Amino acid sequence: MTHPLNIAIDGTFSSGKGTLSRRIAAHYGLACLDTGKLYRAVARDVLAAGVSLAEGEQAAVIAAQIDPSTLDDPYLKSGEIGAAASKVSVHPPVRAALLAFQRDFAAKGAVLDGRDIGTVICPDADAKLFVTADPEVRAERRYQELLGYGEDVTLAGVLSDLTERDHRDMNRRVAPLKPAVDAHLLDTTDLSIERAVSTAIRMIDAVLDANA
C-alpha cells in the first residue's frame, strides 16, 4: 500500500464501535478519532453559549471554532450531551464545518468512527465496517454506562432515547446513518468485546489482502 491506511467504522449508538475503533487502531498502529466527540463538543459549547440546539447557523460558527484539546472532557460522555449532540448533528452547516477537520485527521492514516465515515468523510477508505446490535442490547449497555457515571436514569428511558436517536440519525437530510455499499456488517449483539475485535480484524485483513 502506497498511501496512508484509512479504516472507516460506522454504526448505531452504543453498538460498541468506539471500543472497537480504539482496539483496531492499536492493532494496526493508527491514530483514532471518535467523530461523535466532535459533535458532542459542539453541543456542549452551544449549550454553554446559551444558543438553541435548533439554530444550525449559530451552531456551525461554534463548530468551526472547536478546540480539539477538549475532546477528552468527561462531560461529553453524559446523557445530556449525547442527546444534545444528536440534535445539533442534523444541521448541514455544522456537518460542513467539521468536515475538513475529519478529513485532515484521516489524511495521515487513521481509524475514524462515526455515522457517515464510509459514506461522506472517507468514501475511499481501505476498509469499512458497519457495527450494530439489537436496540435492547444497546440500551442495556448505555444504561449500565450512565449508571457508572452516577446518572439517574431508567432502562426504559434509555431505550426510548436510543430509539429516538436512531430515527433522527437515520432520517436526517444530510449524511444519514446508513451502511456504505462496500461496508461489512458486524452485529455485536451476541459478541463479547474480544470476539467483536477479533472478528473485525479478520474482516479488515480479508479486505486489505483482497485489495493488495
From TrEMBL:
One of its GO terms (molecular function) is dCMP kinase activity. It catalyses: CMP + ATP = CDP + ADP; dCMP + ATP = dCDP + ADP. ATP binds at residues 11-19. InterPro entries: Cytidylate_kin, Cytidylate_kinase_dom, P-loop_NTPase. Gene3D superfamilies: P-loop containing nucleotide triphosphate hydrolases (3.40.50.300). NCBIfam families: cmk. This is Cytidylate kinase. It comes from Algimonas arctica.
